[in-house]
Amino acid sequence: METVERIEEKKQLILDLMQHKDYKPMKIKELSILLQVPNNERTLLEEVLDQLILEGKIIRTKRGKYSLPETLNMVIGIFQGNAKGYGFLILEDSDSNDIFIPADRVNGAMHKDKVLCKIIKSEHGGRKAEGEVVQILERGSKQIVGTYEKSKNFGFVIPDGKNFSRDIFIPKGDSLGAVTGHKVVVKITDWGKDRRNPEGEIIEILGHINDPKTDILAIIKEFDMDLDFPEELMKELESIPEEVTKDDIQGREDLRDVRMVTIDGEDAKDLDDAISLEKLQNGLYRLGVHIADVSHYVRENTALDKEAFKRGTSVYLVDRVIPMLPHKLSNGICSLNEGEDRLALSCIMDIDSSGIVKNHRVVESLINIDKRMTYNDVKKILEDKDKELINKYEAYVDFFKLMEELSVILRNKRVKRGAIDFNFEEAKISLDEEGRAIDVQVVERNIATRIIEEFMLICNETIAEDYFWRGLPFIYRSHQDPDPEKILKLSTFIHNFGYRIKGANNVHPKDLQKILWDIEGKPEEAVISRLVLRSMQQARYTFNNDGHFGLAAKYYCHFTAPIRRYPDLQIHRIIKAAINEKLDNRANNRLNKKIPEVAKHCSIRERIAEEAERQTEQLKKVEFMKDKIGQEFDGIISGLTSWGMYVELPNTIEGLIHVTEMDDDYYIFDEQHYLFIGERRKKIYRLGDKIRVKVLKADTIQRTIDFSIVLPDDDDAEEE
């Protein structure tokens, strides 16, 4: 049996050959002759070629010739479907724009499928390139979640996701007894061709659409997330102690006498970071960021580790957390609970009055938390001067004031270098005992959240810079420069409001931060902030240090949350190996091969988690509005499209005023200036305008809210 290393070597050999300027597409027989493959290794060559095809690195033509996709004007990516039949090709390993796939060129591809696409129209004048699906390499969704509807002799399932354009036919004997209105999981048995719908069998009934909690369970299944941990993993947990043992503390630096606190939300149970701080006689601040030593318990290649890697991150849904690690670890021995000995990886930094880290060290430590604080209590002490809490935590008040002092220094340093600081409002959705949404409120950042934010940022930067200059294999958190085309569009739009971006062709974070300062407190603040964010690329995990545009940082990583993020756990292993001088050439070579795959996988898992979190939030916001049909609210226009205006309410709930509801005039959408203008009365609706709306509809199936405009009395009178 071939080793993984040998197969990878052969893959690289074939790729190097195909990348040569003189290579012409060849059949397997020609390749085997050229590569001098013995007859007894012909099967291995076929296996390697098949793996490369599956990975999307090479293609096989209808004539059986092998080539790189780009040499035949083809690309490989993930198909993103749309309910109207068309779709987009998302290119995984490229910074290129998505490719538009017209409905008549989808050729049976479904949402999330890995497909081979031929470019039929190049990108031009701001229009996306167009393509045609020529081959489905791998099906993305073997199971689909939806709502069952029963007919006399058969049934069908309407997929929950908006990305599916076709319902799934369910033969009579494959319904598992489902009735109309059941949320179900369907296994696809026949993908269908041409205009014929896919067929499937129902393998699980989640509950009725009116049953509490069925809705979020459906989203969990839609994103293929596991609620339970494998049996093998649970057996491994039995050997993990519930308290720190004598053997665990051997060789560790004892920091139990150092004053430390954790500051988290009231509901948090997985406490993975603690803070210590003192001002030295030489005027330096000694900041300690102490992170739970999860890697001590989650050993590489164990069942625990494999499951943590598979999940990639904890997922925080409205009504539950789907943890990366089992509760025995995340809420137990790895959680930095008050008054209990815990193992940690401590980054201790000496910082001067201008926020520069003069020196630092990272040690394996033994710690014991003095106080478990909440953001609200620290905020009340520092901002509200709450006498009762000041008396209760009298011994810590100066400690918190020192934290505030250092956090302001660090923030000022970041702002000065041009870091972009978005001040988005987040929603807190309250549920009743049955899981129904009963309130949606805005949660604002406060001094306590900013303190922890600044301390985590400086720690992550310090670690990343250290390991970059050591030249060791590492996982960085990278945020690349914005797409110039998007910045140009943003520049054109904000010019309508009287703002401009300096040097739009080579934008610096400072230029975008200046815009955010200029709009602070203005009606258009929320809208322009969101457009600035959309003009930027998404941050991701990378093997190379590409810098972090949004933070205006040359070096950045994620070190501070190993309970809930796998990249942090991987970084802890690298740091501990370096501390214990175990990073020899062999270990480095192994990491050089492993880390790019870890970075790519964790970036994908992060996107999935973010989308699942967004969908559950949207679902509960819609549910909250269901009993408010006919009620009126004030909002601002947050988005404009040819089909209508999106309006956001003060509590972050967003809905659509469809263009057909704008019936007091015939409105024309001016895409260049982002506005609607009435043909007869010349009334204008712009992004950022205040508007009063009435709730028309709240659809929990589509997860959408529809509004209509409430016209002022003088408009009504004129109409009459």
Provide an overview of this structure.
By secondary structure, this protein is α+β, with helices and mostly antiparallel strands. The protein folds into 6 domains: 4-69, Winged helix-like DNA-binding domain superfamily/Winged helix DNA-binding domain (Arc Repressor Mutant, subunit A), CATH 1.10.10.10; 73-138, Beta Barrel (OB fold (Dihydrolipoamide Acetyltransferase, E2P)); 143-211, OB fold (Dihydrolipoamide Acetyltransferase, E2P); 231-480 and 542-615, no CATH class; 484-536, no CATH class; 629-719, Beta Barrel (OB fold (Dihydrolipoamide Acetyltransferase, E2P)). The chain is 31% helix and 27% strand. The chain has 17 helices and 33 strands. A 5-stranded antiparallel sheet has the order 5-4-3-6-7, with no helix packed on it. Strands 10-9-8-11-12 form a 5-stranded antiparallel sheet, with helices on one face. A 5-stranded mixed sheet has the order 13-20-19-16-15, with helices on one face. A hairpin with a 5-residue loop joins β27 (644-648) and β28. α1 crosses α3 (42-54) and α4 packs antiparallel against α16. The longest helix has 41 residues, at 585-625. The chain is globular and about 75 Å long.
